[in-house]
From TrEMBL, chain A:
Taxonomic lineage: Bacteria, Pseudomonadati, Bacteroidota, Cytophagia, Cytophagales
Naturally occurring in which organism (per UniProt): Arcicella gelida
The keyword DNA-binding appears for this protein: yes
SUPFAM superfamilies hit by this protein: Sigma2 domain of RNA polymerase sigma factors, Sigma3 and sigma4 domains of RNA polymerase sigma factors
Name of the protein in question: Sigma-70 family RNA polymerase sigma factor
Gene3D superfamilies on file: 1.10.1740.10, Winged helix-like DNA-binding domain superfamily/Winged helix DNA-binding domain
UniProtKB keywords: DNA-binding, Sigma factor, Transcription, Transcription regulation
From TrEMBL, chain B:
Xref: Gene3D superfamilies: Tetratricopeptide repeat domain
Keywords on record: Membrane, Transmembrane, Transmembrane helix
Protein name stated in the entry: Tetratricopeptide repeat protein
InterPro entries registered for this protein in UniProt: TPR-like_helical_dom_sf
Membrane-spanning intervals of the chain: 87-107
Amino acid sequence: MNQRYSPSDVVDILRSNNHTEINNVTVFLYRFFKPIIASHIFKQGGNYDDAKDIFQEVIIIFFRQVRHLKFEAKSLKEMEGYFIQIANNKWLKKKEADGRRFRREQEYLTQKNVYTQELTSSAILENEEENSSLPNILERLGEPCRSILMAYYGEELSIKDIALRFNLGNPDAVKVRKFRCLEKLKTLLLKP
Amino acid sequence: MNPKDDYQRLETIEQYFNGSLSVDEMANFENALKNDFDFSKEVSDYQKLTNMIKEITIEQNIIATLDKLEQEEPIIPLKRKTPFITLFPYLSGLVAACLIFVLYASFSVIQLPGSENDLTIVRDVDVSILSPVEKKVFDNFYAGQSYLAEGQFQKAVQSFQVVLKNNNLRPYFKEATQWHLVLAYLRSGQIQEANHLYDELSSCKDCVYPIGKIDKAKLWWQILWAKIF
């Protein structure tokens, strides 16, 4: 399949909840833009894994911007520029983070005792930042809550289908379970 | 809105967003949305939460699709620009410059220093009162230059050789004649002779005849070219 989409098609589909079409658009974005982003990252001295990670982040950021109505494109060229801009920012952040980590390691090796306290707190802060994001909260929700909520609200499956897919028995029980899971998620979001 | 219990309230909120409430229930719901701040916030939170779950689900599907594509259709890393490719514009410029120089050296005219000065520098005498020997030397030198200019190279060789038979030449004039002879040899196809004399002149340490470096290089190049082809 080598389907080509116009920028407005891409935007419309990503704003919808049509999983099949979103999947097709993802394939299109990968085939069309990945070589461009990858060669850009290679030029900056990155390797294949860097290009893979950066491209994934670019697509997710793009998806969020589209969903939150923060992106409108008139041409694929414009999209390319936008992607390269995000990739650049991500690459710079990665390099800065690598540099910081390297400096911290060096400092740690030379002045182990002095910085122990500081390192611990900064590591905690970083972890906090990571943990507070919704995907991480969903992870912390555990199974089968995560799967039930994602299947019901994300994939829009019926309670009956969810009961069958995850082998959860009575649909009514799944319904109650879903309610409890949602409440638990709300609590986690309020008090992460 | 009558909040019977949390579970029931959530059911109603979901039915509202599904569009499965009856007309009366809908009116009731919307009325509660306007008048009950807590309920309105609960509905808003529900909507935000479910939207976020939707987005995360799609994001995870996108990541899964990208991972699958990375496995099935890996983008082959473009080879990093090798130094040759990076230097290509500079190298091609250098090659072009060399080519231009070669063409220039091969086909441009070799200008040996002006002979009009030779007379006054070598011989600080009045031309009109030259001795017959001196006159013969000068005549042959200028004749050689004329033959060279006219393309009669063999005659030019002969004229310069006559000049050089005189053992009493001043160094400047002797060298001037020899350089002219090199050129005459080259033009007349006597490459070995030209090469031999050129080497002899090039290796001299106290030469006085001021032949320019570029002309010297052009002469060397043309002899080399003639030797190869």
